[in-house]
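Your task:
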Amino acid sequence: MPWDPDARMSGPPRRVPPIAWVVGPLILAVFQIGGSFGAAQGQTDARPLDALAIALLLVGPVGVALSRRWLTYALPVAAAAMGVWLALGYPYGPIFASYAVLTIIAVSRGRRWLAWGSALLPIAGQLVRGLDTDRQGSWGGVGGFVAWLIVAFAVAEVVRGRRDRAAAAWAARREALARREGEERLLIAQELHDVVAHHMSLINVQAGVALHLGEREKPEHVEPALRAIRDASGEALAELRSLVDVLRSDHAPAPRAPTVRLAALGDLVSRSRAAGLDITVKRLGAQRELPAAVDLAAYRIVQEAITNVVRHAYATHATVTLDHDTDLTVTIEDNGHGPDPATLIEGNGISGMRERAHALGGTVALDPSPLGGLQVRANFPLAEGSSS
């Protein structure tokens, strides 16, 4: 996977670490038991705390600990324990804490019906408490308790909303990253096609020349052909290795600049001349530094066009013109016997040239060449003062 410089700034929605499902309930248990004894001192008409009270106070924290897998049972049981606590007249206090945590967990997981259904149990306990006039409790207390439940549900909805937004943002980011990876793979596929098609075509031509010369018993001419094969294969292997390294590396930074540019056009001309194609390079207009993407695309289009000339045109001469006027215009012409542009069936090479140009807002046109063969003209619009 390509390195993403922004990945360290974001991530998937954070999950509660496993240790929190142990430490959190322990803290809740201590808080509820200690807080209830403190609350009992100020509520003299409430039922004194006893063993049953301690057991009821522990039900909620145990439910929180088990809610990771058994929320369907943990929340109703904790709600029932709180309902019993209220119905028996134990003092108001922090027993509400565990139930509130479980309610938030349920709503955040989309279990709203479970949360609302369980809320009926403590409401029932509060109603029973309101009927007992000997202890602290009234119908006003019932209303206050319902208001407290509404607040708890509101907090739970806020937590769920934030969690949903975080999950949606992360999903969108992953989708965008996958789309960029797909675009990078397409670019690499185009690079592989251009490298293999060009260098292998030159190797094929030179191998045919060497074989032909060997059959005619002209060994002094075989060595240059073999040297050209060696050089072309070496360059092909080097470029292929750099592309494969990008595919193999999961964490290394992606290349920030193209491996080849128009500055390497001389090497392309030299290899083509070794294959028997005489190439003339013309440069028009004031030369300037080009954006890296345009530089690479222009080079690959020249490379693909020359490859097609070597393989299909039976040409002896070709001209490459680089016009650095307002835009960059690259023209490749040959004197061969290529196909008529009007009836030409475009393969991967020509379609690849068009895609490279269109991706940068440019165009590629195929027309008959004044030299007698085919003319390939690629135009790349350049912003004023643009550079790499």
